[in-house]
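tool=predict chain=A
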Amino acid sequence: MVTFLPSRPGSLADVPSFTRAIGGAESNVACALAAAGHRAAWVSRVGADGFGDHLVAAVAAYGVDTSAVRRDPDRPTGVYFRTATDRADDAHEVVYYRAGSAASAMSPGTVPPGDLGPARVLHLTGITAALSAGCLALLRDLTARRPGRPLVSFDVNHRAGLWRGADPGVLLDLARGADLVLVGEDEAEAAWGLRGPAALREALPEPAVLVVKDGGRGATAFARGTEPPPRTPPADTPAAPAPACPAPAADRGRPAPGPAADRGRPASGPAADRGRPAPGPPAAPRPPASASAPATGPGRPAPPASDAVVFVPAPRVEVVAPVGAGDAFAAGFLSATLRGLDLTRRLRHGHLMAAAALTVPGDLGTPPARARADRLAALDDAAWGRLHLGPGWTRTGEDQEVRTP
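tool=predict ok
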């Protein structure tokens, strides 16, 4: 959808003007991956109108392949307005004008098999599953386990407002069909009544990799030794986009939804050490005492014995706008996965990409240069724990990019 961002804080009744932008979880991820140097494609459906023109042009400007975005001559492109506050804040407001939009009419029949192409990773979110029966059918089809499919990444992205009168348990079913699942502890408890990383791993043993996010505290990743690597298409196979469903009614400030895919870019790092902690510095221990249960402990089942389990704390960030961090984290983690980095560095790249989004006014921050991100992701635990990232940190010089206490 097209999103309109407020020119100043305040209620929608009081904000005098808005700036046009793009919104949607999946296209956010596609844009961030393209900005990080990967070949990414986005498949979706927009209206044959000016807002549709803007969406396609804006996503393509990030370097994303939009050749499989379809134009619907009968349905409009959705739009929405939001306030500047965090969606978890009681003062947050969002108003959607998307009933009957082109994107919400997506289904398996609107996504020809050729649109998916030889993608190495297909990224989906649970937001789309709540939009319509057709969108849910599309996600069921894309998460069905079948030979030769790409690595399927699924960000749960539970939005309570989208599931009124419906069972969000369907998100658990979709997650079980994915190879890589990302979920926040808060949304897992709200949607499924599950609390803590270990309880989530017990409920989701099927994905080779499970990432459980705990907001600004950090993230825990579980990975099996049999984790499948993203496939590499033949060198002469043209890149092809992955599908996209519409941005959810509760998706706040994200580019128009739809699965994102990295297309055929060979990994630039070692491909054999996927899903295992780095042999270097150990991950920092999980902090005690929080609303979420620890990864293991009394009353909590232990993760599968074959799992590698890593917790990486998030760096301190001076937040400019509390939106877009979840999509950016997914993009950073996927980027590091495509490059064959170890589990600890995947989590750190996720945190760094999230920090890039949190330190700008909109949803899409400028990722740090790959060499800089790699250098920060390779810091020892003590140096990583001192990171303090503020506005402009991805663009400033070496001696200014990181603030320490």
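The chain has eleven helices and 16 strands. Residues 233-256, 263-301 have pLDDT under 50 and may be disordered.
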